[in-house]
Amino acid sequence: MNLRSYARAAGVLLLLSAIFGGLGEAYIPSKLIVAGNAAATASNIRASDFLFRLGFATYLVEGICDVCVALVFYVMLRPVRKELALLSAFFGLVSTATFAVCEFFYLAVLLVLKDAAYMQSFSPDQRNTLAMLLLKAYGLGGGAFLAFYGCASLIRGYLIFRSGYLPKFLGILLALAGACFVVKTATLVLAPAYSSDILLLPMFLAILAMTFWFLFRPVDASTAQVLL
Fold first, then answer.
1. Count of domains in the chain?
2. Has residue 38 got a pLDDT over 90?
3. CA–CA separation, 95 vs 30, rounded Å?
4. Which of 39, 164, 147 is nearest to 99 (CA)?
5. Residue 228: predicted pLDDT
6. What angle (nearest 5°) sits at the alpha carbon of residue 224, between those of residues 218 and 226?
7. What's the predicted TM-score (pTM) here?
8. In whole angstroms, what is the distance from residue 164 CA to residue 205 CA?
9. Mean pLDDT to the nearest integer, 118-122
10. Is 165 contained in some domain?
11. Inter-residue contact 3 to 228 (CB < 8 Å)
């Protein structure tokens, strides 16, 4: 495979990751979780058990894509500086593993809300509150995952900028997005009042730009002859 083939693979994987990630991390939770209302949230989840499980399934697809993205970016960027490309792959894999742990808190909500014998010692209100607590832990852990993904994006952005065979503006945008992810995690942990979702916007723009470029405006044919 040459550079053009890897670029197209990256575009497809980023697109799939964005679609399934958007479903599992934004759309489906927005349909089920009622902020500050544990009883309503539990009622929604019980009434839409399949939709809730679908949220976890979409993450599995996103996670598989992210693991593949770590490999593809490593291969694409190792000619620039191999050890940094490898480090970005490590950060990418750790971020995926970290979020996988958080997803188990999400899935554990079903165990809490299930009418099983082991939950009979808890009152309905206690079970609802515990379910909301697990969802809060899932969200907080998801914030921690951003730091690892941000570091991976910072390094990838730098390598893209230095590559000479990929657009510099993609590198700048991705590095900025990675820095915003790191800041988002830092503020979430140290100063929650200043943790704004606006910091997520640059990553959305970076993924959109990379997906479009890798799919429709890949590196030129002469550059693509470089074997990786």
1. 1
2. yes
3. 23
4. 147
5. 47
6. 145
7. 0.88
8. 22
9. 83
10. yes
11. yes
Tokens representing 96? 């995926």
Q: How many CB atoms lie within 10 A of CB 188?
A: 20
Examine residue 228 and state whether it is found in any structural domain, yes or no: no
Which amino acid, 31? K
Most confident of 24-38, 60-74, 186-200: 60-74
Looking at the domain assignment, is residue 185 inside a domain?
yes
Evaluate whether 84 touches 159 at the Cβ level (below 8 Å).
yes
Q: What's the CA gap between 141 and 150, in Å, rounded?
A: 15
CB 170 within 8 A of CB 210: yes
- 110, 20, 101, 27: which is closest to 57 by C-alpha? 20
User: Is 74 part of a structural domain of the chain?
Assistant: yes
Angle of helix 82-113 versus helix 49-77 axis, rounded to 10: 170
Query: How confident is the prediction for the chain on average, in pLDDT?
Result: 90
- Structural domain including 192 reads 3-214
Q: Which residue has the tokens 């921690």?
A: 144
Give me the pLDDT at residue 210, please.
Answer: 95
